[in-house]
């Protein structure tokens, strides 16, 4: 019992050190922004304009048809907001890993990461914190708030807590997607096609209600690439809808669990990739 208590205490201290490291790296990145604030503002503005235009396009398309499979325009916009907000949270920590890992492996600079007396995954997540996703976060919060206001939805304390859990669960799902599509870089020189197909292109489907698609797509985005848990299923809870098709209404409550499970699998896949990379003698 005493040894278990000491082990738990040691793990707790390690976790606290990693949290402290996260804060320090983020602080350094924010200080860098202050040194080049004009470049940062230009980048954020450009991203805001890009995703703002995408938001307007979705809005125009939905308003043109008035309703899609029983979903009103503001309800579809709510799907968009959930998707974008969770993507922003995931992108802060994991997009730079996804985009930068292939180049690091190709140039051999990933070897330097392995020499650090830290977990390579956590180190990269800390060091590569991507502040560019601030624009995504601001826009998504605005869109979610707009949807609640236009749909006259009441957000209780329980509802607010669940909304936070949904966004965190969605962020874990999206983070897992970014990680899983980056790991093949340990085996293949060029893996951008995998990222484009399995993450960005596949995730485009959840801009709209899942029920508008063929049954195969619904199964794919629920059981194989579970992106539907980012927004479609949890949205049913807030919108008081019952558009589950041939899936259970219970699915509206499991986004946080799906996120934890999928992210754990993604991290396990990362460890497999690391072992493979070390085994090559790179």
From TrEMBL:
Keywords assigned: Membrane, Transmembrane, Transmembrane helix
Pfam family, one: ABC2_membrane_6
InterPro entries: ABC-2_transporter-like
TM spans (from-to): 40-62, 77-97, 131-148, 160-189, 210-230, 250-270
Source species, domain of life: Bacteria
Protein name: ABC transporter permease
Organism annotation: Paenibacillus oralis
Phylogenetic classification of the source organism: Bacteria, Bacillati, Bacillota, Bacilli, Bacillales
């Amino acid at each position: 019992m005493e040894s278990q208590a000491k082990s738990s205490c040691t793990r707790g201290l390690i976790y606290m050190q990693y949290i402290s490291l996260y804060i320090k790296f983020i602080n350094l990145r924010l200080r860098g922004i202050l040194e080049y604030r004009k470049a940062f503002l230009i980048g954020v503005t450009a991203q805001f304009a890009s995703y703002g235009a995408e938001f307007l396009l979705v809005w125009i398309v939905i308003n043109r048809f008035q309703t899609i499979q029983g979903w009103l325009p503001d309800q579809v916009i709510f799907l968009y907001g959930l998707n974008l907000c969770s993507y922003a949270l995931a992108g802060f920590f994991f997009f730079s890993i996804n985009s930068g890992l292939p180049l690091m492996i190709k140039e051999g600079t990933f070897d330097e990461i392995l020499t650090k007396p830290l977990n390579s995954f956590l180190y990269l997540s800390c060091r590569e914190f991507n502040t560019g996703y601030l624009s995504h976060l601001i826009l998504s919060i605005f869109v979610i708030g707009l949807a609640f206001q236009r749909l006259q939805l009441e957000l209780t304390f329980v509802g607010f807590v669940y909304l936070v859990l949904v966004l965190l669960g969605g962020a874990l799902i999206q983070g897992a997607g970014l990680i899983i599509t980056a790991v093949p870089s340990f085996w293949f020189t060029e893996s951008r096609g995998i990222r484009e197909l399995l993450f960005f292109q596949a995730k485009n489907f959840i801009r709209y209600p899942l029920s508008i698609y063929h049954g195969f797509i619904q199964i794919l985005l629920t059981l194989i690439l579970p992106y539907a848990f980012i927004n479609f299923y949890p949205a049913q809870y807030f919108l008081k809808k019952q558009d589950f098709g041939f899936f259970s209404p219970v699915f509206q409550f499991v986004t946080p669990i799906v996120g934890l499970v999928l992210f754990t699998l993604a991290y396990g896949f990362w460890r497999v990739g690391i072992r493979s990379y070390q085994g090559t003698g790179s």
